[in-house]
């Protein structure tokens, strides 16, 4: 816990306890640890740095007002859930920004998800993910990697809720087939491939 008025050696869980006790130092240390990577990940979702900065600020303001982490999972994952929802809230009145998210992503730096996917590219999971159509991969990223609800994913991708559900269902089926099939076999034909 806190020693000599400093929080640098405290765990993330201890920092949340400190925030619950209304200690600004604990919130500041939480921000120093998590603010930079949250900003980097949100920048891959939105090219407007002022909106990203506001979303990060909103995240830590929400934590200050309601440090509701329930000691389940990582504090970072809890913060990411708040941050991505803060970004979506900021984007709602600016639909034009949402439309630009896909086209304005920075190509010179890989997102955390892209780095993870690159590491598993040649594993069974990586091969199965690679074989999904771009539409299905986008839904898997939004729902699984970003942890968005169906409604939030629909908003982010600009498609109806039902389309998110059906694409997620199709992606699960294709991934299951790819993962349980005999070694060296291919899953059902991917869009654009021809049967031989």
Automatic annotation (TrEMBL):
<dbReference type="InterPro" id="IPR013249">
    <property type="entry name" value="RNA_pol_sigma70_r4_t2"/>
</dbReference>
<dbReference type="InterPro" id="IPR007627">
    <property type="entry name" value="RNA_pol_sigma70_r2"/>
</dbReference>
<dbReference type="InterPro" id="IPR036388">
    <property type="entry name" value="WH-like_DNA-bd_sf"/>
</dbReference>
<dbReference type="Pfam" id="PF04542">
    <property type="entry name" value="Sigma70_r2"/>
</dbReference>
<keyword id="KW-0731">Sigma factor</keyword>
<dbReference type="InterPro" id="IPR014284">
    <property type="entry name" value="RNA_pol_sigma-70_dom"/>
</dbReference>
<dbReference type="GO" id="GO:0006352">
    <property type="term" value="P:DNA-templated transcription initiation"/>
</dbReference>
<dbReference type="Pfam" id="PF08281">
    <property type="entry name" value="Sigma70_r4_2"/>
</dbReference>
<feature type="domain" description="RNA polymerase sigma factor 70 region 4 type 2">
    <location>
        <begin position="128"/>
        <end position="175"/>
    </location>
</feature>
<protein>
    <submittedName>
        <fullName>Sigma-70 family RNA polymerase sigma factor</fullName>
    </submittedName>
</protein>
<dbReference type="InterPro" id="IPR013324">
    <property type="entry name" value="RNA_pol_sigma_r3/r4-like"/>
</dbReference>
<dbReference type="InterPro" id="IPR039425">
    <property type="entry name" value="RNA_pol_sigma-70-like"/>
</dbReference>
<keyword id="KW-0804">Transcription</keyword>
<comment type="similarity">
    <text>Belongs to the sigma-70 factor family. ECF subfamily.</text>
</comment>
<dbReference type="InterPro" id="IPR013325">
    <property type="entry name" value="RNA_pol_sigma_r2"/>
</dbReference>
<dbReference type="GO" id="GO:0003677">
    <property type="term" value="F:DNA binding"/>
</dbReference>
<feature type="domain" description="RNA polymerase sigma-70 region 2">
    <location>
        <begin position="30"/>
        <end position="92"/>
    </location>
</feature>
<keyword id="KW-0805">Transcription regulation</keyword>
<dbReference type="GO" id="GO:0016987">
    <property type="term" value="F:sigma factor activity"/>
</dbReference>
């Amino acid at each position: 816990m806190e020693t000599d008025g400093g929080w640098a050696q405290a765990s993330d869980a201890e920092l949340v306890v400190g925030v619950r006790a209304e200690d600004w130092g604990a919130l500041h240390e939480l921000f120093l640890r998590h603010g930079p990577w949250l900003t980097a990940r949100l920048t891959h979702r939105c090219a407007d740095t002022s909106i990203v900065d506001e979303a990060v600020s909103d995240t830590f303001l929400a934590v200050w007002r309601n440090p509701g982490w329930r000691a389940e999972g990582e504090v970072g994952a809890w913060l990411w859930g708040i941050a991505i929802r803060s970004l979506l809230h900021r984007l709602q009145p600016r639909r034009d920004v949402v439309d630009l998210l896909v086209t304005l992503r920075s190509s010179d730096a890989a997102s955390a998800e892209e780095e993870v996917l690159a590491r598993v590219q040649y594993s069974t999971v990586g091969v199965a993910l690679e074989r999904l159509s771009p539409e299905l991969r986008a839904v898997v990223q939004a729902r699984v990697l970003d942890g968005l609800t169906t409604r939030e994913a629909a908003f982010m991708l600009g498609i109806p809720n039902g389309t998110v559900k059906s694409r997620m269902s199709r992606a699960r089926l294709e991934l299951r087939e790819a993962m349980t099939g005999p070694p060296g076999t291919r899953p059902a034909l991917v869009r654009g491939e021809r049967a031989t």
